[in-house]
């Protein structure tokens, strides 16, 4: 017990280095930053007595893979699991009705999330959780709060609604069940019949992009790594022109065309990855990309650019 700093039921700090931690029964609150940057932590078992997880409680626990949140927990604070890069699944109890800012920001191994009671979401809760595939939500989730919440979650393919709680009125068939889709682009640009809440989430995923049909015409941010979402068939003229922060870009299997000057003057672009072969690249699409060193094709076939000898 020496590794726990507990006061009046609040775990104020964990100072051990174990890979698996069993939090003592009787703790009702994980305090602010209690496990912050515990880089050895891989699994934690929380007690049935737990009610609250405060701000930044597990922030930066980059090896944390598994945490089971007890049924009586009703509060999860801002940044509680921020940058838990190894966390794969999370299931929130129905009593958690709101999530603050950045709770699961950059949890980029997260594949499944269940949040059946959440009605309100803060900013950037799931931003850049690129492997998130399955999401269970409440029918009562407020559409108005979904703004820069799921941005960059391009892997999302399934949204389901939690079972109706006793006492809730019946919903129309359109608001029931599980909705599967190949990608967010198909929901936004296609003609898929999905509930409005699912469509709002898909639009939020693509918030940093402007589409015309399945053509990406504007990219509104300057990320170091750009992962073009599946479903995009063309990259428009000058789409990434002069975005000097980009170091690498991955193109999806669905891509068919890279337009004129699409990446011109991206002088720090070093690597491009093609998931498909059938891409028409316009002649000056990568003009002045003077740092480009590697082109990767399907099957992990790589071409290294080493300059032009003899000049």
Structure description:
The protein has 311 residues and is mainly β. 5% of the residues lie in helices and 26% in strands. A hairpin with a 2-residue loop joins strand 1 and strand 2. The chain is globular. Mean pLDDT is 92; it is low at 170-175.
Q: How large is the count of helical segments?
A: 2
- Order of H and E elements: EEEEEEEEEEEEEEEHHEEEEEEEEEE
Through-space gap between termini = 69 Å
Given the helix and strand composition, which structural class is it?
Answer: mainly beta
Work out the helicity level: under 10%
Enumerate the spans where pLDDT stays under 50 for 5 or more consecutive residues: 170-175
Cross-sheet strand order for the largest sheet: 1-2-4-6-8
Rounded to an integer in angstroms, the radius of gyration calculated over CA atoms is 22 Å
- Proportion of beta-strand residues: 25-35%
Mean pLDDT: 92
DSSP E strands, number: 25
Shape call: globular
In this structure, how is the largest beta sheet organized? 5 strands, mixed
Could you write a compact summary of the structure shown?
The chain has helices spanning 184-189, 196-205, and strands at 4-7, 10-14, 20-22, 29-30, 43-45, 52-53, 66-68, 75-76, 89-91, 98-99, 112-115, 120-121, 134-137, 158-161, 178-180, 209-212, 215-219, 225-227, 234-235, 248-251, 257-258, 271-274, 280-281, 294-297, 301-304.
Jot down its keywords.
five-stranded mixed sheet, 25 strands, mainly beta, 311 residues
Question: Layout of helices and strands, plus pairs?
Answer:
Layout: E1 4-7, E2 10-14, E3 20-22, E4 29-30, E5 43-45, E6 52-53, E7 66-68, E8 75-76, E9 89-91, E10 98-99, E11 112-115, E12 120-121, E13 134-137, E14 158-161, E15 178-180, H1 184-189, H2 196-205, E16 209-212, E17 215-219, E18 225-227, E19 234-235, E20 248-251, E21 257-258, E22 271-274, E23 280-281, E24 294-297, E25 301-304
Parallel strand pairs: 2-4, 3-5, 4-6, 5-7, 6-8, 9-11, 10-12, 11-13, 13-14, 17-19, 18-20, 19-21, 20-22, 21-23, 22-24
Antiparallel strand pairs: 1-2, 14-15, 16-17, 24-25
